[in-house]
Protein backbone atom coordinates (compact mmCIF):
# COMPACT_ATOMS: atom_id res chain seq x y z
CA UNK A 1 0.00 0.00 0.00
CA UNK A 2 1.24 3.47 -0.87
CA UNK A 3 2.42 5.41 2.16
CA UNK A 4 3.15 8.99 3.11
CA UNK A 5 6.54 9.01 1.35
CA UNK A 6 4.99 7.90 -1.93
CA UNK A 7 2.31 10.58 -1.72
CA UNK A 8 4.90 13.28 -0.99
CA UNK A 9 7.02 12.20 -3.96
CA UNK A 10 3.95 12.04 -6.19
CA UNK A 11 2.99 15.62 -5.32
CA UNK A 12 6.55 16.79 -6.04
CA UNK A 13 6.67 15.01 -9.41
CA UNK A 14 3.32 16.37 -10.57
CA UNK A 15 4.19 20.02 -10.14
CA UNK A 16 0.62 21.15 -10.88
CA UNK A 17 -1.22 19.63 -7.91
CA UNK A 18 -1.77 21.15 -4.50
CA UNK A 19 -3.54 20.09 -1.32
CA UNK A 20 -6.66 22.25 -0.93
CA UNK A 21 -9.45 22.44 1.61
CA UNK A 22 -12.74 22.27 -0.33
CA UNK A 23 -15.41 24.89 0.21
CA UNK A 24 -18.49 23.52 1.94
CA UNK A 25 -21.56 23.40 -0.32
CA UNK A 26 -24.93 22.37 1.04
CA UNK A 27 -27.07 19.69 -0.58
CA UNK A 28 -29.76 22.28 -1.38
CA UNK A 29 -27.30 24.39 -3.36
CA UNK A 30 -25.87 21.36 -5.08
CA UNK A 31 -29.25 20.16 -6.33
CA UNK A 32 -30.79 23.59 -7.07
CA UNK A 33 -27.98 24.80 -9.29
CA UNK A 34 -29.08 22.88 -12.36
CA UNK A 35 -29.49 23.73 -16.00
CA UNK A 36 -33.25 24.17 -15.79
CA UNK A 37 -33.09 26.87 -13.08
CA UNK A 38 -30.21 28.72 -14.72
CA UNK A 39 -31.88 28.69 -18.14
CA UNK A 40 -35.10 30.06 -16.63
CA UNK A 41 -33.18 32.88 -14.97
CA UNK A 42 -31.42 33.79 -18.22
CA UNK A 43 -34.77 33.78 -20.04
CA UNK A 44 -36.24 36.23 -17.52
CA UNK A 45 -33.11 38.36 -17.74
CA UNK A 46 -33.32 38.43 -21.54
CA UNK A 47 -36.99 39.45 -21.32
CA UNK A 48 -36.15 42.37 -19.05
CA UNK A 49 -33.16 43.49 -21.13
CA UNK A 50 -35.19 43.43 -24.35
CA UNK A 51 -38.12 45.23 -22.74
CA UNK A 52 -36.20 48.15 -21.20
CA UNK A 53 -32.89 48.20 -23.12
CA UNK A 54 -30.79 48.31 -19.95
CA UNK A 55 -27.07 49.07 -20.11
CA UNK A 56 -24.24 48.21 -17.70
CA UNK A 57 -24.88 51.28 -15.52
CA UNK A 58 -28.54 50.27 -15.11
CA UNK A 59 -28.04 46.68 -13.85
CA UNK A 60 -27.62 46.51 -10.07
CA UNK A 61 -27.36 43.73 -7.52
CA UNK A 62 -28.09 43.96 -3.80
CA UNK A 63 -27.04 41.44 -1.19
CA UNK A 64 -26.50 41.31 2.56
CA UNK A 65 -23.66 39.89 4.62
CA UNK A 66 -22.99 39.67 8.33
CA UNK A 67 -20.08 41.31 10.15
CA UNK A 68 -19.49 40.18 13.74
CA UNK A 69 -17.56 41.82 16.54
CA UNK A 70 -15.28 38.75 16.83
CA UNK A 71 -12.79 38.47 14.00
CA UNK A 72 -11.04 35.46 12.50
CA UNK A 73 -7.34 35.91 13.21
CA UNK A 74 -4.82 36.32 10.42
CA UNK A 75 -1.87 33.99 10.08
CA UNK A 76 1.22 34.88 12.11
CA UNK A 77 4.87 33.81 11.95
CA UNK A 78 5.74 31.47 14.84
CA UNK A 79 8.63 29.26 15.81
CA UNK A 80 8.62 25.83 14.18
CA UNK A 81 7.49 23.07 16.51
CA UNK A 82 5.52 25.32 18.84
CA UNK A 83 2.25 23.60 19.68
CA UNK A 84 0.01 26.54 20.56
CA UNK A 85 -0.01 29.96 18.96
CA UNK A 86 -2.57 32.38 20.35
CA UNK A 87 -4.03 35.71 19.33
CA UNK A 88 -6.44 38.06 21.10
CA UNK A 89 -10.06 38.30 19.94
CA UNK A 90 -12.73 40.70 21.05
CA UNK A 91 -14.89 38.08 22.80
CA UNK A 92 -15.84 34.43 22.68
CA UNK A 93 -19.12 35.03 20.86
CA UNK A 94 -19.71 38.06 18.69
CA UNK A 95 -22.72 40.23 17.91
CA UNK A 96 -23.80 40.37 14.28
CA UNK A 97 -24.38 43.53 12.26
CA UNK A 98 -25.90 43.14 8.79
CA UNK A 99 -24.33 45.11 5.94
CA UNK A 100 -26.29 45.59 2.69
CA UNK A 101 -24.31 46.43 -0.44
CA UNK A 102 -25.37 47.18 -4.00
CA UNK A 103 -23.14 47.44 -7.07
CA UNK A 104 -23.77 47.66 -10.80
CA UNK A 105 -22.20 46.06 -13.86
CA UNK A 106 -20.17 49.21 -14.50
CA UNK A 107 -18.33 48.93 -11.17
CA UNK A 108 -20.20 51.60 -9.19
CA UNK A 109 -21.16 51.03 -5.56
CA UNK A 110 -23.92 52.47 -3.37
CA UNK A 111 -22.74 53.38 0.18
CA UNK A 112 -23.42 50.49 2.56
CA UNK A 113 -26.51 50.19 4.74
CA UNK A 114 -26.03 48.86 8.31
CA UNK A 115 -28.69 47.06 10.34
CA UNK A 116 -27.90 47.08 14.07
CA UNK A 117 -29.39 44.70 16.66
CA UNK A 118 -31.15 47.53 18.49
CA UNK A 119 -34.81 48.48 18.80
CA UNK A 120 -34.18 52.13 17.98
CA UNK A 121 -31.59 53.45 15.58
CA UNK A 122 -29.45 56.45 16.50
CA UNK A 123 -27.25 58.49 14.18
CA UNK A 124 -24.15 58.01 16.33
CA UNK A 125 -24.21 54.28 15.48
CA UNK A 126 -22.57 55.20 12.15
CA UNK A 127 -19.58 57.03 13.58
CA UNK A 128 -16.51 56.56 11.39
CA UNK A 129 -18.50 54.72 8.71
CA UNK A 130 -18.14 55.11 4.94
CA UNK A 131 -19.22 58.40 3.43
CA UNK A 132 -22.95 58.43 2.64
CA UNK A 133 -23.79 55.27 4.60
CA UNK A 134 -27.12 54.85 6.36
CA UNK A 135 -28.66 52.39 8.78
CA UNK A 136 -31.61 51.10 10.75
CA UNK A 137 -32.21 48.88 13.74
CA UNK A 138 -34.28 45.92 14.82
CA UNK A 139 -33.86 43.50 17.75
CA UNK A 140 -32.52 40.66 15.58
CA UNK A 141 -30.00 42.59 13.50
CA UNK A 142 -31.21 40.86 10.32
CA UNK A 143 -32.83 42.41 7.28
CA UNK A 144 -36.60 42.70 7.78
CA UNK A 145 -39.35 44.11 5.56
CA UNK A 146 -39.30 47.63 7.14
CA UNK A 147 -35.48 47.69 6.88
CA UNK A 148 -35.57 46.73 3.21
CA UNK A 149 -38.06 49.52 2.54
CA UNK A 150 -35.66 51.98 4.19
CA UNK A 151 -32.83 50.59 2.10
CA UNK A 152 -34.81 51.11 -1.11
CA UNK A 153 -35.19 54.78 -0.19
CA UNK A 154 -31.42 54.91 0.44
CA UNK A 155 -30.79 53.18 -2.91
CA UNK A 156 -33.13 55.54 -4.76
CA UNK A 157 -31.48 58.66 -3.35
CA UNK A 158 -28.01 57.58 -4.57
CA UNK A 159 -28.96 56.20 -7.99
CA UNK A 160 -31.48 58.92 -8.97
CA UNK A 161 -33.79 56.29 -10.43
CA UNK A 162 -37.16 57.39 -11.78
CA UNK A 163 -39.93 56.15 -14.04
CA UNK A 164 -38.26 57.91 -16.97
CA UNK A 165 -34.84 56.34 -16.18
CA UNK A 166 -35.49 52.83 -14.85
CA UNK A 167 -33.02 50.44 -13.26
CA UNK A 168 -32.83 46.65 -12.91
CA UNK A 169 -32.24 45.35 -9.38
CA UNK A 170 -31.22 41.70 -9.00
CA UNK A 171 -31.84 40.14 -5.58
CA UNK A 172 -32.45 36.82 -3.87
CA UNK A 173 -35.72 35.36 -2.58
CA UNK A 174 -35.32 36.43 1.04
CA UNK A 175 -38.64 37.05 2.78
CA UNK A 176 -37.79 40.70 3.40
CA UNK A 177 -37.42 41.25 -0.36
CA UNK A 178 -40.86 39.84 -1.17
CA UNK A 179 -43.00 42.35 0.71
CA UNK A 180 -45.87 43.96 -1.16
CA UNK A 181 -44.90 47.40 0.16
CA UNK A 182 -41.38 47.06 -1.27
CA UNK A 183 -42.68 45.88 -4.66
CA UNK A 184 -45.14 48.79 -4.83
CA UNK A 185 -42.35 51.22 -3.93
CA UNK A 186 -40.17 49.84 -6.72
CA UNK A 187 -42.97 50.06 -9.26
CA UNK A 188 -43.67 53.66 -8.27
CA UNK A 189 -40.01 54.67 -8.59
CA UNK A 190 -38.98 52.79 -11.75
CA UNK A 191 -37.07 49.89 -10.18
CA UNK A 192 -37.50 46.54 -11.95
CA UNK A 193 -36.99 43.59 -9.59
CA UNK A 194 -35.67 40.24 -10.83
CA UNK A 195 -35.07 37.42 -8.34
CA UNK A 196 -32.48 34.66 -8.57
CA UNK A 197 -33.43 30.97 -8.35
CA UNK A 198 -33.35 29.71 -4.75
CA UNK A 199 -30.06 28.27 -3.48
CA UNK A 200 -28.20 29.45 -6.60
CA UNK A 201 -26.77 32.75 -5.38
CA UNK A 202 -23.30 31.23 -4.79
CA UNK A 203 -22.92 30.94 -8.59
CA UNK A 204 -25.26 33.67 -9.89
CA UNK A 205 -25.23 36.63 -7.47
CA UNK A 206 -22.42 39.08 -8.40
CA UNK A 207 -21.82 40.50 -4.91
CA UNK A 208 -21.64 37.02 -3.43
CA UNK A 209 -19.25 35.80 -6.13
CA UNK A 210 -16.50 38.43 -6.14
CA UNK A 211 -17.02 41.04 -3.39
CA UNK A 212 -18.09 39.46 -0.11
CA UNK A 213 -15.25 36.92 -0.03
CA UNK A 214 -12.45 39.52 -0.17
CA UNK A 215 -14.48 41.81 2.10
CA UNK A 216 -14.56 39.24 4.90
CA UNK A 217 -10.77 38.82 4.71
CA UNK A 218 -10.09 42.56 4.78
CA UNK A 219 -12.58 43.04 7.64
CA UNK A 220 -10.75 40.43 9.74
CA UNK A 221 -7.40 42.09 9.06
CA UNK A 222 -8.82 45.52 9.93
CA UNK A 223 -10.31 44.13 13.14
CA UNK A 224 -6.92 42.66 14.10
CA UNK A 225 -5.28 46.05 13.65
CA UNK A 226 -8.07 47.69 15.66
CA UNK A 227 -7.48 45.29 18.56
CA UNK A 228 -3.73 46.02 18.57
CA UNK A 229 -4.28 49.78 18.55
CA UNK A 230 -6.92 49.60 21.33
CA UNK A 231 -5.44 47.29 23.98
CA UNK A 232 -7.84 46.09 26.64
CA UNK A 233 -10.95 47.26 24.73
CA UNK A 234 -13.47 44.99 23.02
CA UNK A 235 -14.93 45.68 19.59
CA UNK A 236 -18.54 46.82 19.86
CA UNK A 237 -21.22 47.02 17.20
CA UNK A 238 -20.60 50.78 16.98
CA UNK A 239 -17.02 50.11 15.81
CA UNK A 240 -18.15 47.93 12.89
CA UNK A 241 -18.84 50.86 10.49
CA UNK A 242 -15.30 52.22 10.90
CA UNK A 243 -13.82 48.74 10.31
CA UNK A 244 -15.97 48.29 7.19
CA UNK A 245 -14.92 51.75 5.97
CA UNK A 246 -11.30 50.61 6.04
CA UNK A 247 -11.89 47.27 4.34
CA UNK A 248 -14.54 48.16 1.73
CA UNK A 249 -12.36 50.12 -0.75
CA UNK A 250 -9.90 47.21 -0.93
CA UNK A 251 -12.59 44.59 -1.61
CA UNK A 252 -15.17 46.45 -3.72
CA UNK A 253 -12.85 47.40 -6.58
CA UNK A 254 -14.10 47.99 -10.10
CA UNK A 255 -12.51 44.76 -11.35
CA UNK A 256 -14.08 42.70 -8.56
CA UNK A 257 -17.57 44.12 -9.08
CA UNK A 258 -17.55 43.84 -12.89
CA UNK A 259 -16.17 40.29 -12.81
CA UNK A 260 -19.06 39.30 -10.56
CA UNK A 261 -21.50 40.32 -13.30
CA UNK A 262 -19.56 38.79 -16.21
CA UNK A 263 -18.89 35.40 -14.59
CA UNK A 264 -22.57 34.23 -14.45
CA UNK A 265 -23.34 35.79 -17.84
CA UNK A 266 -25.42 38.71 -16.55
CA UNK A 267 -23.44 41.46 -18.29
CA UNK A 268 -22.30 41.09 -20.98
CA UNK A 269 -25.35 38.88 -21.41
CA UNK A 270 -24.18 35.33 -22.06
CA UNK A 271 -26.71 32.49 -21.60
CA UNK A 272 -23.99 29.90 -22.22
CA UNK A 273 -21.66 31.15 -19.49
CA UNK A 274 -21.89 27.81 -17.68
CA UNK A 275 -20.74 24.57 -19.26
CA UNK A 276 -22.28 21.16 -18.79
CA UNK A 277 -19.62 20.19 -16.25
CA UNK A 278 -20.75 23.07 -14.00
CA UNK A 279 -24.06 21.27 -13.45
CA UNK A 280 -22.46 17.88 -12.72
CA UNK A 281 -23.13 18.25 -8.99
CA UNK A 282 -26.90 18.28 -9.57
CA UNK A 283 -26.84 15.15 -11.74
CA UNK A 284 -27.56 12.76 -8.88
CA UNK A 285 -30.74 14.64 -7.94
CA UNK A 286 -32.06 15.37 -11.45
CA UNK A 287 -35.42 14.01 -12.42
CA UNK A 288 -35.22 10.91 -14.64
CA UNK A 289 -35.73 11.53 -18.38
CA UNK A 290 -39.17 10.80 -19.84
CA UNK A 291 -39.80 7.30 -21.09
CA UNK A 292 -39.30 6.71 -24.79
CA UNK A 293 -42.52 6.58 -26.80
CA UNK A 294 -43.54 3.56 -28.80
CA UNK A 295 -42.79 5.12 -32.17
CA UNK A 296 -39.10 5.53 -31.34
CA UNK A 297 -36.90 2.76 -32.66
CA UNK A 298 -34.00 1.56 -30.55
CA UNK A 299 -31.13 -0.49 -31.92
CA UNK A 300 -29.54 -2.93 -29.47
CA UNK A 301 -26.39 -4.44 -30.96
CA UNK A 302 -25.45 -5.95 -27.59
CA UNK A 303 -28.56 -8.13 -27.45
CA UNK A 304 -26.77 -11.01 -29.10
CA UNK A 305 -24.21 -11.11 -26.27
CA UNK A 306 -26.85 -11.12 -23.53
CA UNK A 307 -26.67 -7.37 -22.90
CA UNK A 308 -29.50 -4.98 -23.67
CA UNK A 309 -27.42 -1.88 -24.37
CA UNK A 310 -29.07 0.57 -26.79
CA UNK A 311 -26.36 2.11 -28.91
CA UNK A 312 -28.46 4.73 -30.71
CA UNK A 313 -32.10 5.64 -31.05
CA UNK A 314 -33.63 6.92 -34.26
CA UNK A 315 -36.40 9.50 -33.95
CA UNK A 316 -39.41 9.52 -36.28
CA UNK A 317 -37.87 12.39 -38.23
CA UNK A 318 -34.75 10.32 -38.79
CA UNK A 319 -32.50 12.36 -36.50
CA UNK A 320 -29.96 10.19 -34.68
CA UNK A 321 -29.41 10.51 -30.93
CA UNK A 322 -25.79 10.48 -29.79
CA UNK A 323 -24.62 7.56 -27.68
CA UNK A 324 -23.99 8.31 -24.00
CA UNK A 325 -21.83 6.25 -21.60
CA UNK A 326 -24.60 6.78 -19.07
CA UNK A 327 -26.62 4.15 -20.95
CA UNK A 328 -23.96 1.48 -20.34
CA UNK A 329 -23.25 2.31 -16.72
CA UNK A 330 -25.44 5.06 -15.23
CA UNK A 331 -24.25 7.13 -12.34
CA UNK A 332 -25.95 6.47 -8.99
CA UNK A 333 -29.06 8.58 -8.53
CA UNK A 334 -30.61 9.79 -5.32
CA UNK A 335 -33.84 8.24 -4.12
CA UNK A 336 -37.24 9.94 -4.31
CA UNK A 337 -37.58 13.12 -2.34
CA UNK A 338 -39.30 12.92 1.00
CA UNK A 339 -42.66 14.62 1.25
CA UNK A 340 -42.49 17.07 4.13
CA UNK A 341 -45.16 19.20 5.73
CA UNK A 342 -43.40 22.43 4.91
CA UNK A 343 -45.66 25.42 4.91
CA UNK A 344 -43.36 27.60 2.84
CA UNK A 345 -43.91 27.85 -0.89
CA UNK A 346 -41.12 26.77 -3.19
CA UNK A 347 -39.69 29.85 -4.88
CA UNK A 348 -38.27 30.31 -8.36
CA UNK A 349 -36.77 33.12 -10.38
CA UNK A 350 -39.36 35.74 -11.37
CA UNK A 351 -39.76 39.38 -12.38
CA UNK A 352 -41.29 40.56 -9.11
CA UNK A 353 -42.51 43.92 -10.38
CA UNK A 354 -44.67 42.36 -13.10
CA UNK A 355 -48.38 42.60 -12.30
CA UNK A 356 -49.19 38.83 -12.42
CA UNK A 357 -46.27 37.98 -10.11
CA UNK A 358 -47.19 40.73 -7.67
CA UNK A 359 -50.85 39.66 -7.62
CA UNK A 360 -49.91 36.03 -6.98
CA UNK A 361 -47.55 37.06 -4.19
CA UNK A 362 -50.21 39.25 -2.58
CA UNK A 363 -52.78 36.44 -2.73
CA UNK A 364 -50.27 34.06 -1.19
CA UNK A 365 -49.49 36.43 1.67
CA UNK A 366 -53.19 37.01 2.35
CA UNK A 367 -53.80 33.27 2.44
CA UNK A 368 -51.01 32.66 4.93
CA UNK A 369 -52.22 35.25 7.45
CA UNK A 370 -53.38 33.39 10.53
CA UNK A 371 -56.85 33.99 11.86
CA UNK A 372 -56.92 35.91 15.11
CA UNK A 373 -58.01 34.01 18.16
CA UNK A 374 -61.37 35.06 19.63
CA UNK A 375 -61.18 37.36 22.61
CA UNK A 376 -61.52 35.84 26.04
CA UNK A 377 -65.02 35.87 27.48
CA UNK A 378 -65.69 38.08 30.47
CA UNK A 379 -65.97 36.35 33.87
CA UNK A 380 -69.77 36.81 33.98
CA UNK A 381 -70.36 34.75 30.83
CA UNK A 382 -68.10 31.89 31.79
CA UNK A 383 -69.48 28.58 32.97
CA UNK A 384 -69.78 28.34 36.77
CA UNK A 385 -66.99 26.56 38.52
CA UNK A 386 -67.65 23.21 40.08
CA UNK A 387 -67.92 23.14 43.84
CA UNK A 388 -65.56 20.95 45.74
CA UNK A 389 -68.13 20.28 48.49
CA UNK A 390 -71.88 19.88 48.03
CA UNK A 391 -74.15 22.03 50.26
CA UNK A 392 -75.41 20.60 53.53
CA UNK A 393 -78.80 18.82 53.61
CA UNK A 394 -80.34 21.59 55.73
CA UNK A 395 -79.22 24.31 53.39
CA UNK A 396 -81.54 27.10 52.49
CA UNK A 397 -84.22 27.13 49.85
CA UNK A 398 -83.23 26.36 46.28
CA UNK A 399 -79.81 25.13 47.29
CA UNK A 400 -78.69 28.43 48.86
CA UNK A 401 -76.58 27.71 51.91
CA UNK A 402 -77.69 29.37 55.19
CA UNK A 403 -75.34 30.87 57.68
CA UNK A 404 -74.67 28.79 60.80
CA UNK A 405 -72.74 29.41 64.01
CA UNK A 406 -69.22 28.03 64.03
CA UNK A 407 -68.68 24.86 66.09
CA UNK A 408 -67.46 25.26 69.67
CA UNK A 409 -64.22 23.53 70.60
CA UNK A 410 -63.64 22.65 74.31
CA UNK A 411 -60.07 22.03 75.43
CA UNK A 412 -59.44 19.69 78.40
CA UNK A 413 -58.33 21.33 81.64
CA UNK A 414 -54.75 20.93 82.74
Number of DSSP-assigned strands: 8
What order do the strands of the largest sheet run in, or round the barrel if closed?
4-3-2-1-5-6
CATH topology of the domain at 34-72 and 92-278 and 347-366: the name is: Nucleotidyltransferase, domain 5
Report the β-strand fraction as a percent range: 5-15%
Largest sheet: 6 strands, mixed
Structural class: alpha/beta
Mean pLDDT: 84
Describe this structure in words.
- By secondary structure, this protein is of the alpha/beta class.
- The protein has 12 helices and 8 strands.
- The protein has a domain at 34-72 and 92-278 and 347-366: Ribonuclease H-like superfamily/Ribonuclease H (Nucleotidyltransferase, domain 5, 2-Layer Sandwich), CATH 3.30.420.
- The chain has helices spanning 4-14, 27-32, 35-52, 145-159, 180-189, 201-204, 206-210, 212-229, 240-251, 254-262, 325-328, 355-368; strands spanning 59-68, 96-104, 109-116, 134-137, 167-171, 191-195, 297-299, 312-314.
- The strands form 2 sheets. A 6-stranded mixed β-sheet has the order 4-3-2-1-5-6, with helices on both faces. The protein has a two-stranded antiparallel ribbon with strand order 7-8.
- α4 (145-159) runs parallel beside α5 (180-189) and α8 packs across α9.
- The protein is globular.
- The model is unreliable at 292-314 and 395-403 (pLDDT under 50).
